[in-house]
């Protein structure tokens, strides 16, 4: 026996089996005890509860939802809400971060000071405090009767009311796709080799494409408008409440603003790092070739800086996506809050936690995969690599 | 060939200013724009926070309604609840002293003379013990105060310190296990680390506070506070383990091989050769991780703890001070800022110092 233990291979195998076995036993024991405890409370384990109706309402939902809907539908709504909040927050945070990062890398000391101060102030205050602050600020706005007004928008303690087009959902989708096409088409036309026209002389083609796409968008909007109503549905006061328009609830706007400002300070630092990574020789070479400062920026500095920042940016995006779980602090029904509510109402603790973990794993992995692909697609190849 | 000698620009103050901010029309526009933004913000902020603010608490909330600026009297009236939460009034000096202990501990561990494993462990161990005795009492003639009465800054600091105390050794263990040569051990540990890292901290805190009691036998459940600390320590250690592992990868392979050739045992190799060098490499990232985890202690409010953010909510949430939420949040933000900013500045200083040594 002891002789066997002295054998390195046997010892290694034993050690590994012990480690994995102990961890596995811990998990299995926990699960068994939990099932027993839950069964004592009259809760049967399993995923059957997903098909029962929930019996409680959601505060915020992109898709129609009522208390009669089953749990699986609520989980889908939760994931959609998280992605919706995340994409708005990420887009705005990137915008803020770009501006702050550019200010920090600017040759001007005053602009640098502004960018530096922004980063130092907002990066060092916890995100959840900022969420609470913006939420308190919005809910302390005047009530609907004395709302701030401007450009057809209303700012009240019940949220931000925007004018909304009176257009069917499908037509709205088509119109927004057309707007996206108006942005993507000219970029594609400027690079593709399918056109016989040389690369530098495609401005008129691009202009025509943009115009066509925008005309399509307007046509879709008019074709899909609801009968007997004005094209724009303006919010207005009726009695003590506001009618019409599109309401953005305070929970959502507080979260988006907080994520944009906090995330912007981190992304600002990433952008600064990216621009710092661009070799000085590259910039000097570009300007000595006679490129204008704008050309140096768009053709040399920005593309190189983007490549340097993308991997770190991907990590930051994953982090910010996870930060949407702060929704529970102000009552925004994101994926995590729906999980917590499910546990409260149905008692299906283990299953709900499992779904939460799987959901976040899926979101994070797909974000990482997306960025890996982008990274590979734009990485410098072959002889471009020289610094 | 004739050399063209350009006279150096006149070195007056005005010339210097012109060269720095008004070299080109574009620069001038940026300068003026930034300057006006800075002046506007500084003026607004000073006006709000100092010139037209109310500092005197004697006027009560009514004095604030009359003024246009900040109402700092809410802090004067409610600072005890923000700092100490529900801690018994007569014993609050203990809570204050405990906070001072943590600050002293942090300052001590920033001094290079304490950067040996034994000394740093001693500082943090003794500091945490003093903190615990001061807060909880029941010893040395101090009255007993249960954890459910703890709150405010002291609770925030307690969660932070215990998270680090539990999380740091755990992180080193996880990092060592992950770089183990035995494939099953390293793979399983990698799975745990990556799994924890992919989850939001709130969901882990929630699991440990509310779900874990179901999965544990009665005698193992413990207090909710310690379960949450365990969860936050696990989260911290998953991130810190990757940082430590990164530091270990920076240690040249030859170091360990030389140690092996000298016949050092595994533990000596790790504790005398590998870890000291790895920790040195990982120091800036480690301080960054401390900063992040200090900010993240504020998340325990979601599982129902009365830490500084919650006590701030309570400070303005009741009746007469409802309007003064901006001042309370600004005050708490300043407390966080002081801690976090000084730590991160220290991290930046260390990074500079260490990069000098490597040159």
From TrEMBL, chain A:
PROSITE patterns: ABC_TM1 (PS50928). It is found in: Cell inner membrane; Cell membrane. GO terms for cellular component: ATP-binding cassette (ABC) transporter complex. Residues 79-371 form the ABC transmembrane type-1 domain. One of its GO terms (biological process) is amino acid transport. The chain crosses the membrane at residues 12-34, 71-100, 121-138, 170-191, 203-223, 252-271, 317-340, 352-371. Its main location: membrane. One of its GO terms (molecular function) is transmembrane transporter activity. It is a multi-pass membrane protein. SUPFAM superfamilies: MetI-like. InterPro entries: AA_ABC_transptr_permease_3TM (IPR010065), ArtM/GltK/GlnP/TcyL/YhdX-like (IPR043429), MetI-like (IPR000515), MetI-like_sf (IPR035906). NCBIfam families: HEQRo_perm_3TM. This is ABC transporter permease subunit.
TrEMBL record, chain B:
Residues 153-344 form the ABC transmembrane type-1 domain. It is found in: Cell inner membrane; Cell membrane. Keywords: Cell membrane, Membrane, Transmembrane, Transmembrane helix, Transport. The keyword Transmembrane helix applies. Its main location: membrane. SUPFAM superfamilies: MetI-like. One of its GO terms (biological process) is amino acid transport. It is a multi-pass membrane protein. It holds the Pfam family BPD_transp_1. The chain crosses the membrane at residues 28-46, 93-115, 122-144, 150-177, 198-219, 328-349. One of its GO terms (molecular function) is transmembrane transporter activity. It comes from the Bacteria. GO terms for cellular component: ATP-binding cassette (ABC) transporter complex. PANTHER family: INNER MEMBRANE AMINO-ACID ABC TRANSPORTER PERMEASE PROTEIN YHDY (PTHR30614:SF41), MEMBRANE COMPONENT OF AMINO ACID ABC TRANSPORTER (PTHR30614). NCBIfam families: HEQRo_perm_3TM. Belongs to the binding-protein-dependent transport system permease family. HisMQ subfamily. This is Amino acid ABC transporter permease. It comes from Mesorhizobium waimense.
